[in-house]
Amino acid sequence: MLDIDPTAPSPIRIIENIWIPLSDGSRLAAKVWLPEGAADAPVPAVLEYIPYRKRDHKAIRDAEIHGFFARHGYAGVRVDLRGSGDSDGILRDEYLQQELDDGLEVLRWIAAQTWCTGKVGLFGLSWGGFNALQLAALQPPEVGAIITVCSSDDRYADDVHYMGGCLLTDNLSWASTMFAFNSCPPDPQIVGEARWREMWLDRLEGSGLWLKTWLTHQRRDDYWKHASVAEDHSRIRVPVMAVSGWADGYTNTVFRLMANLDAGVPRRGLIGAWGHKYPHMGGPGPVIDFLGECVRWWDQWLKGIDRGVDDEPAVRAWMLDTSEPTSPRSPGRWIAEQVWPSPRIAWTSFYPAPGLLSPDPDPALDDASHLTVQSPLSVGMFAGKWCSYAEATDLPWDQRQEDGGSLVFDTLPLDEDVEILGAPEVTIDLSVDKPVAMLAVRLCDVAPNDRATRVTFGVLNLTHRDSHETPEPLEPGRRYRVTVRLNNIAQRFRAGNRIRLALSTSYFPLAWPSPEPYRLTVYPAGCRLDLPVRPPRAEDARLRHLGQPRTGPAPHTKLLAPAQREWVVNQNLAQNVVELNIVNNDPFFRLYNGQDDADETGWDDLGAIDLARNTTEKYSYTYNFYDTLRGEVTTERRFRRGGWEVMTVTRTILTSTRSHFLIRATLDAYEGDVRIFSKSWDERIARDLV
After folding, report:
1. Residue 539 CB neighbours (<10 A)
2. 38 contacts 594 by C-beta, under 8 angstroms
3. Partners of residue 260 on adjacent β-strands
4. Taking the model in full, what pTM does it have?
5. Which site in 86, 439, 645, 677 is 20 to 30 Å from 246, CA atoms measured?
6. Can you give the pLDDT at residue 9?
């Protein structure tokens, strides 16, 4: 339960909607939370700039966050991107130059307001964290500091689209999420009864099929380099707080930023056990007073008040301890390193032999000794999501379900605890029998009862072994030595447990498989696992406590139907069909925009709105045939207020052949019971060594 901060100053003033004019005549819709008296005593501002609808779907979260900032002396500004929420225009893709250009204009507008000192902080999770980095790299003079949460500095190599050159099915899932968001109408009470329908129809027609765009760019080309600040970290010159969670897909960014920002740039990395959520909201690990941490950061860099944040360690992380797979909690403790990379980290090597993982190479192995595997497509059905929201359903399950179709190497039970912090690396001497092949690598913690918890993982498209920009096909039968860098992690392996390395040729549906099955041959004498071992540090026990969550007050709501979460693996032995069925339905609720949001602009009696957001996903294959792979995502978005009711339904199906990806998609929009718009797509995209 989140606590409202009882000591925060009040009251605040809320501007329910204000229009930000752009140079091309368009307007962006913003909601602003102001400390009382800011017009006479200006304050710094904090901008969150995202496409997730300030008026309804994110209204509760926005009020808690930006209301908290306002109560602590900052103007909280939430802006709908062009083409989203109540803003003008059409949203055609993520992180386009238009978005960044608009963002620069928004920053100038905020800094010019009478209630603003001219200093602005950029803040956001996921999309908002991305464009915080991207806008900071453009060096607008208004920006004084940023906080980026669960984001990436590399849009190709470390985002929801591709991993190690392999297509992630979160690409399909995320494209479907934005397909649904882009189908939603603006609010008639904000944009006017005369405009909302025309704006809606323009969006329905013009937003396009983003999945097609992303599948067209299968290499790390200029499309992905655009807005990837990893191209030149030195462009960022303001203080950066980078935050993520071990259950999220974006932890690597924190470590790259801490290592690669210029020496003079203040920085702080914070990684908990959370999923893809703000750290005061997310599980399964302990939540913290994240908004309080943000205010300390803003005070230091936007107000010049010494809060000691410049003396904080470069990296503070939750050291995960042994736990059951999908445990509702993540036991562990906070640790810290003053600088990153840390000179305290010592690389320790383990060497595979048939069934074993040893600190010393096996002298019985010669250069020709080998093992082979050709995994069934079922390996990966218990992998969870690449980008987990730390729901009990979307985390990886007991990895024994995956190990039967993998090459597995175990240490003997450990004589003493082993703790790691960083990105493990696996070097593999291998050959394959096909020109295109992917490899999945998992590192697991195996308890004395044999249950296996995935610690971290990596996947590599072997045609990308040397370059994501210029991949090259494999020569069947030729030996290659490749290195797979796993995701960063902090993990304690307890004495008596075993460390497991598992290799597989499939990891579906987390990653889309190669065009056809292949056999992997591994030569253990040329293989090695390198672990970044961190010695314990007594000072960790004296780290500053990060507190309990606090927020601002939220609007009133009424639950109409509870959330529904399901994650079901079915195997029909009669038809040889394997399916993963996911239900991800948010609560159906009524949101009240009443007196809590009242101010002198007259937005005090806008009435309640009912909101529904439902999503189902299905991933399947038949008879282990690669040309039967199928991913399907269906979404429903519904809005109801009085006599106004609209609904959109989107459906996207992704299949593949050895040579092509195939997309079929439909979009239907309803006003009341009448379907007013319908559109379909049927696309065929050539596979490029994927």
Report:
1. 11
2. no
3. none
4. 0.95
5. 439
6. 55
